[in-house]
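Q: How do we represent a protein-ligand complex in a form that can be generated token by token?
A: Start from the inputs.
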Amino acid sequence: MIKDTMSKISITKTENSKLKDVDFNNLSFGSVFSDHMLVCEYKNGAWEAPKITPYQPITLDPSAKIFHYGQSIFEGMKAYKDANEDVFLFRPLDNFKRLNISAKRMAIPELPEAYFMDGLKTLLELDSDWIPTNEGSSLYIRPFIFASGEGFHASPADAYKFIICSAPSGAYFSGKVKVLIEEKYSRSANGGVGFAKAGGNYAGQFYPTQLAIAKGYNQVIWTDDNTHEYIEEAGAMNIFIRINDTLITGPTSDRILDGITRKSIIDIANDEGIAVEVRKITVSEVVEASKNGSLKEMFGAGTAAVISPISGYGHRGQDYDLPDLENTYASILKKRITDIQTNKTEDKFGWRVKI
Ligand SMILES: Cc1ncc(COP(=O)(O)O)c(C=O)c1O
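Then emit the structure tokens for the protein with pyridoxal-5'-phosphate bound:
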């Protein structure tokens, strides 16, 4: 099966590599792009064999349904290179499965596994020089699918493009983040598309996040749309809260993205002997824990930001600071997960995939 797909992937290499223009010591997040991309077209009811081409703009008809009805989904993953120049992915099959979960919800045709996995591997082999090795850097990979099919009729498109491109990237956040607990706007609703990595979920967050940034916060923490009592997740991260020595994270639902970092952190924390509770947590429980001193840490967890410690949060006009602790759970868990990802430690979970 794999061999079959590999032989079907046509490759056109760039004659103009941009590699020499990149300052690998000063990488921002997701703003320079590696030399090649993979493109796979869905037409006439089937996904066609993937092609690898030089990274380049794409042309679409103005009536392409992506522009009007937002049929668009994506994934975020990273490739790492160890000291021996071996290349690794972290739980890539989980990204593939989630892409198809998103596809189904957005009425996008599901992608064959081999096109995703073999396409990714072939692309990474070709662009392996683009994988940074500096501490905290990696090659951020963006697989996405959108409706390229044409027409103003508000119905699913008949043509799609699946593209993978990548960007050598440094840290997503440069330091701790201050968050605002949001009680007016909602990111998602019961029965909606919050569990899908659908482009529109992010567009809908930008305005409330801009309002939060104008007030001096970096991110919004979403609460449930119905009561705004329960902590849900952040813009592109799941949330963990440490009260005394217990780490708490909310259960996933159709409103929350089932984060790969989140589930890995739960397993690692269990393995480290840290008490973990996956349960609903109310804003009032967190505020109460702040007041009585039992709130020790809050952090976000996601592929882009890895683990991002939260310095404090705002709620109903009041700011609450988190204590500045040594040997935080965030730092222990971040080291453990990045050491697994970058092949610095044993991977007893079998998450690392060598390319
Ligand atoms: C809304 C949202 N929540 C959580 C996450 C974290 O998911 P993962 O750990 O799979 O990157 C992401 C990022 O993908 C996200 O966009």
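The first helix runs from residue 2 to 8. The chain is about 25% helix and 30% strand.
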